[in-house]
Design a protein that fits this description.
Helix 2 packs antiparallel against helix 3. The chain has 414 residues and is α+β, with helices and mostly antiparallel strands. The chain contains 3 helices and 20 strands. It starts with 6 loop residues before the first helix and ends with a strand. It has a 6-stranded antiparallel beta barrel. Strand 17 and strand 18 form a beta hairpin.
Amino acid sequence: MGREIPKDVIRKKKIKLIVKFSSLFAGIAVVIFLLVSYMKASIEERAITLSEVEEGMLEVSVSTSGKVVPAFEEIINSLINSRIVEVYCQGGDSVDVGTPILRLDLQSTETEYKKLLDEQEMRTYQLEQWKAKTRTQLSEMGMKIDIAEMKLDRMRVELRNEQYLDSLGAGTTDKVREAQLSYNVAQMELEQQKQQYENEKLVAEAEQKVKELEFDIFRKSPAEMKRTFEDAQIRSPRKAILTYINNQIGRQVGQGVQLAIISDLSHFKLEGEISDNYADRVRAGSRVIVRLGSDQLEGIISSMTPLSSNGVISFSVQLTENNHPRLRSGLKTDLYIMHAVKDHVLRIRDGPYYIGPSTYELFVVEGKELVKRKVVLGDSNFEHVEVVSGLNPCDRVVVSDMADYRNKTKLKLK
């Protein structure tokens, strides 16, 4: 029968095992830590992007985004209250000048137009009737003046006869006075009639101008109605692509309701927005660089809104090559608006490290190592960033993403 092992012995054996395994695990942990540290403390040169510090010109820009839109786009609205009767085209169809797009119900408009034509004809007859009546009245007044002049001539002869007889003693002074008075009265009446004739003539001329002006104003109504009637027969105003059409046959449409949109999808422009904080840097005529993937286009700001809306300013960009094959309506793009030029500055390539003028910690090549250095960066454009301080010409700087090594001050370059 065996002896019982003392508890002290058992406890000592357990302690020895625990210490042995603990030391083993600690050693393994140290090895792993050193291995990981070694792996993290080095990097292959082919895994990073380096930029050499160089001196040159920097065309300063502000960046924003934009959207490609057709260079020409026309919205066709209904000019009358009507309903859609027929649709001749569908969205995406190519249309030429005068191509019928859809037809509205124009019966009521045509009836109104014919009614206006009838009223215009009636007003024409009324105007001619008034002119004839006025000519007749003036003619009668002219005739009365002619008769009054003949009467005055006769009275002049009678007055001379009475004066002659009175000089011979065959007449009387009273008859001479009576003839003289009749002559003077007739002369005054004639002057009055002439003055009345001139006044009536002036009044008639003025009234005729008023009536003719009223007629011309009214005549514009059927002309406008005719133009509306013709335009209500919806046709394409130019060669383009039909990008939208209201094809709900039978639907009532009010005046001003959108019926169709035609766009020129062979030429494009860009619409952009930028914070009003950059209002002093963005102006009409500013040069713009447009990035389309690996392609780069140039343009200028052709127009911009004079006022800020919700903190942003809208603008349009006219492209030098507005028919580039990569341009598509609705495509989002990066825009770089040039607003200043700096000569003889130190610069490095732009990259994901740069978020604006500030102080950065960048890795710089020193022999076989990458050493973290504090660098002050200034303005930028779509290609380069200005170096204010911290770097020298010909220094090589890492411009790729180094977020995984933010806690390292040195890295071994392999």
